[in-house]
Amino acid sequence: MRAERVFAYGAAAGLLGDLVLGDPRRGHPVAVFGRAAGAVERVLWRDHRGWGALHTAVCAGGAAALGSSAARALRASPTASLALTATATWAVVGGTSLAREARAVGRALAAGDVEAARERLPHLCGRDPQALDADGIARAVVESVAENTSDAVVGALVWGAVAGVPGLLGFRAVNTLDAMVGHKSPRHRRFGWASARLDDLAGWPGARLTALLATASGADPRGALAAWQADAGRHPSPNAGPVEASFAGALGVRLGGTLSYGGRVEHRPVLNGGAGRAVGTGDIERAVRLSRRVGLLALGVCAGGRVLAGAGARALERIRTRRGRTS
């Protein structure tokens, strides 16, 4: 079985596994990686960008190298290679957990239990829940669903299509490191610089594909495209901007504005402010369904792109071989 078909079938099986099984309550591979990265940080931490870059290289490079070694070891067996790709895909994507946590907050809000919603919100994002009312919590959930559709699903599939199992594991490692040390706390302002910049680079293609698919599959493609073009560049994150703006336009809501992280207040630009309405509790379910559609479409695009790229490479090789024989 050719490598591109191994990825296509394995990624589909892994995404199905995530849909059916979700994430394990204990011993999740990403959590194991996080603990290992934390141990490396305790050894390497200095208030210096260079030491932070070394931390990023050791952790992200180690994850990619582990994936490469496993892929080489199983290369002779298509069945084993497919199983490895499926397992890696299941381990790195998080669409089902994302939907589960978003819906849990949505149910609490629908029941009028704002305190329960505040208690659940930290499972989904890093906002300060006590600073949010019901509408603010709903907005935070929709924004988190949008951003994590790119980070936890589409971006991983993109890099899996490009680089197979090493791409899947490497991307998830980079994204996890950004969540751990990439924020601008006093401890990580310099040390986490490399992880944050690498995450921006690694997330760039997945964020654009997410925005494109949200625009194409949402209820208002024109509105999503208009919000993407008008507002994405105003967001402080180069990748969250296109994703959140396109989701805002597709859902017909306003995102962005004032928020609080770890006691630090940020005033972000409003996305889709001219055409959108305030986020309501019902928009959480709409955002989850849009995220699901985007994830499935991304699987088709990435798997199809990998198959077409393989076919194109073989066609070029045949042309070169024929030319070599006639020269």
Describe what you observe in this structure.
- The chain is mainly alpha-helical and about 325 residues long.
- It has helices at about 5-20, 30-45, 50-75, 80-90, 95-110, 115-120, 135-180, 195-215, 220-230, 240-250, 280-325, and strands spanning about 255-260, 265-270.
- It has a two-stranded antiparallel sheet with strand order 1-2.
- The radius of gyration is 21 Å and the shape is globular.
- The protein starts with a helix and ends with a helix.
- The model has no long low-confidence stretch (mean pLDDT about 95).
Instruction: Determine the strand fraction and express it as a percent band.
Output: under 5%
Multimeric state: single chain
For the largest beta-sheet, the strand count, sense and barrel status come to: 2 strands, antiparallel
- What is the rounded Rg? 21 Å
List the helices and strands and how they pair.
Blueprint: H1 3-21, H2 29-44, H3 49-73, H4 78-92, H5 95-110, H6 114-120, H7 134-181, H8 193-217, H9 221-231, H10 240-251, E1 255-261, E2 264-271, H11 282-326
Antiparallel strand pairs: 1-2
Helix pairs in contact: 1-4, 1-7, 1-11, 2-3, 2-7, 3-7, 4-7, 5-6, 5-7, 5-11, 7-8, 7-10, 7-11, 8-9, 8-10, 8-11, 9-10
Short description:
73% of the residues lie in helices and 5% in strands. The chain is mainly alpha-helical and 327 residues long.
Q: What brief labels describe this structure?
A:
327 residues; two-stranded antiparallel sheet; mainly alpha; 73% helix; 11 helices; single chain
